[in-house]
């Protein structure tokens, strides 16, 4: 008998779980609120440029590299230039001990290829533009209630992968009579998340630097991260520069709703000072993306988060793995997908 699995969210954890279930006797349905997949591993195109405005690349050692190669090496690229650091005073230092051995993987088509390629190896159905606002545990399984009131289900197992604050809110609206619900809501709701606003700054000239990106190691600068997208192959036309600037959580929270032009102008001034180039104050076009729940600062209690599994409710994501990296979310999704398959076989 074919079992059914519902997955809320098509980010790295959700697609990782679907990939783990690709050979299982299970029909997998992914409910994704946006039009794309891969979550914060997102890519845009504009004015001849292609850029990753959320997660900038995928790391994770040999296991991750082997998986990415198995999905097809066409367009797969390793960003060779290094990541350097800077402090709150704007002093730049060569190298980053936390990333010294990282291979920085992406694709010429953008980092969103991660989810697209993983899902291409599965038979999962992806319902895009479907925002899940409620859950119900009924006699025949789990039901997901969309924002328009329509229902999806029943599912023998349901996996929730949105950021912890959104998952906790979803649990608060669930119809599930279970003694573990209060503890799950409390533990998941307590996971702290950083807010990050990304500003994309384009310039009609080249920028010569010995690094791909700079990261604020002491987290005291208004800029958290600056990456040169032209260091990735086939991303930015020759003779141009495109900077992906991720602002600090404190700056991002304060300026989250400011008009794009105002936020970009202030970000450009900060980047100009940091990189010591007055030309960077005046980008010829800008783009932006706000991530209200960008990265977890901690993980959830692993014992508590598994208390719903006897009822077929699972959780996955970087906040479950306890590390705000794409590969951490991906492999956590794979692990939970494997656990779902084992549970379905026992039923």
Short description:
27% of the residues lie in helices and 29% in strands. It is of the alpha/beta class. The strands form five sheets. A seven-stranded mixed beta sheet has the order 7-6-15-16-17-14-18, covered by helices on one side.
Task: Note the topology.
Elements: E1 3-8, H1 12-20, E2 26-32, E3 43-46, E4 49-52, H2 61-70, E5 76-78, E6 83-86, E7 92-93, E8 105-107, H3 113-120, E9 125-128, E10 132-138, E11 141-146, E12 151-155, E13 157-160, H4 164-172, H5 181-189, E14 193-203, E15 213-216, E16 223-228, E17 241-247, H6 249-255, H7 260-275, E18 285-296, E19 313-315, H8 318-321, H9 326-346
Parallel strand pairs: 1-2, 1-13, 2-9, 6-15, 13-19
Antiparallel strand pairs: 3-4, 5-8, 6-7, 10-11, 11-12, 14-17, 14-18, 15-16, 16-17
Helix pairs in contact: 1-3, 1-9, 4-5
Please provide a written account of the structure:
There is one protein chain. The chain has 347 residues and is α/β, with parallel strands linked by helices. Helix content is 27%, strand content 29%. The chain has two domains: 3-39 and 115-190 and 299-346, FAD/NAD(P)-binding domain; 43-111 and 193-296, Polyamine Oxidase, Chain A, domain 2. The protein contains nine helices and 19 strands. It is globular, with a radius of gyration of 21 Å. The mean pLDDT is 95.
In whole angstroms, the N-to-C terminal distance is 10 Å
Number of strands: 19
Order of strands in the sheet with most strands:
7-6-15-16-17-14-18
The rounded Rg comes to 21 Å
């Amino acid at each position: 008998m074919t079992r059914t699995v519902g997955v809320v969210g098509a980010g790295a954890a959700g697609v990782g779980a679907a990939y783990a279930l690709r050979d299982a006797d299970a029909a997998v349905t992914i409910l994704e609120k946006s039009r794309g997949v891969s979550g914060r591993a997102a890519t845009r195109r504009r004015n001849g440029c292609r850029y990753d405005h959320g997660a900038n690349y995928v790391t994770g050692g040999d296991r991750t590299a082997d998986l990415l190669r198995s999905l097809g090496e066409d367009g797969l690229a390793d960003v060779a230039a290094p990541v350097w650091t800077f402090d709150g005073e704007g002093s730049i230092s060569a190298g980053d001990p936390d990333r010294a051995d990282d291979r920085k993987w992406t694709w010429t088509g953008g980092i969103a290829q991660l989810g697209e390629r993983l899902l291409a190896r599965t038979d999962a159905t992806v319902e895009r533009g479907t925002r899940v606002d409620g859950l119900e545990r009924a006699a025949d399984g789990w039901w997901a209630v969309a924002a328009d009131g329509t229902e999806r289900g029943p599912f023998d197992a349901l996996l929730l992968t949105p950021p912890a604050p959104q998952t906790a809110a979803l649990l608060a609206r669930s119809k599930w009579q279970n003694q573990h619900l209060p503890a799950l809501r409390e533990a998941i709701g307590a996971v702290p998340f950083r807010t990050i606003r990304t500003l994309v700054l384009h310039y009609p000239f080249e920028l010569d630097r010995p690094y791909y990106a700079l990261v604020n190691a002491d987290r005291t600068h208004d800029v958290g991260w600056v990456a040169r997208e032209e260091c990735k192959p086939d991303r930015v036309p020759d003779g141009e520069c495109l900077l992906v600037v991720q602002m600090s959580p404190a700056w991002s929270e304060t300026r989250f709703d400011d008009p794009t032009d105002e936020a970009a102008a202030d970000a450009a001034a900060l980047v100009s000072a940091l990189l010591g180039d007055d030309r960077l104050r005046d980008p010829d076009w800008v783009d932006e993306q706000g991530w209200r729940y960008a990265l977890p600062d901690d993980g959830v209690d692993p014992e508590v988060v598994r208390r719903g599994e006897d009822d077929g409710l699972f959780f996955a994501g970087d906040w479950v793995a306890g590390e705000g990296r794409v590969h951490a979310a991906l492999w956590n999704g794979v692990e939970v997908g494997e656990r779902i398959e084992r549970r379905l076989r026992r039923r």
